[in-house]
Amino acid sequence: MAKELSPKKYIETQSRKLPIYKCYINKDWKSARMANVFVMRKHINGNLTVGIYLIDLACLGIKDTFFFFNLPEREINERLDLPNIFLQEVEYNLAHNVVFAAHDYALDYDINPHKDFAITKFILEEDDDNIPLIEIPVGGEDGKPLLVLQPGQSTKYKHVYDKLVKNVGKDNFNFVMGEDELYNFDDKDI
Fold first, then answer.
1. CB 187 within 8 A of CB 160
2. Is 127 within the bounds of a domain?
């Protein structure tokens, strides 16, 4: 009797053998510079394994990622509230290019993807020449990295701010944050 693989081991070794089923992205991803990307693969039993990627195209790359493994489509739809009026179904190539454009842009500034991308990257196809390249806009409107922080995030992302200062200099990136946190990025604190 063959030993059953754990969900993580299955994803790392077998998920690319499953056909891509559907992909979704939020409709406003271009203007928001933030994307929620869902890539679904279908098992022979009809269940789905889904990679979910919270993407920051302006600076941080892959902010968060997780997966659902071998679940019925009905359960996936309930958990993700699909179909969702804020999402649109897209071709796999667009989903792939959005994820990897953000990933590569962030790496250019020494900003690593979320730790779970080590697993969820296997739900995506290999990032190679077999996937047609689509130019995805990254950075802020001026092309510089744009670090956008929500209230409560300054401590969590201070290391990113420090990397940007070190790698590109203070005048070569922009940042926006909640007013209550400005003191965390004051010159005397950096």
1. no
2. no
The model's pTM is 0.89
Last residue of a domain, one of 73, 105, 120: 120
> Which residues, at least 6 apart from 93, have a Cβ–Cβ distance to it below 8 Å?
131, 132, 134
| Distant-in-sequence, close-in-space partners of 178: CB < 8 Å, separation ≥ 6 | 149, 150, 151, 152
Q: Does a structural domain hold residue 74?
A: yes
Q: What is the pLDDT of residues 52-83, one digit of tens each?
A: 999 999 999 999 999 999 999 999 988 887 66
> Could you list the residue range(s) of the whole structural domain that residue 75 is in?
14-120
Question: What is the C-alpha to C-alpha distance for residues 46 and 160, in angstroms, rounded to an integer?
Answer: 41
132 domain residue, yes or no: no
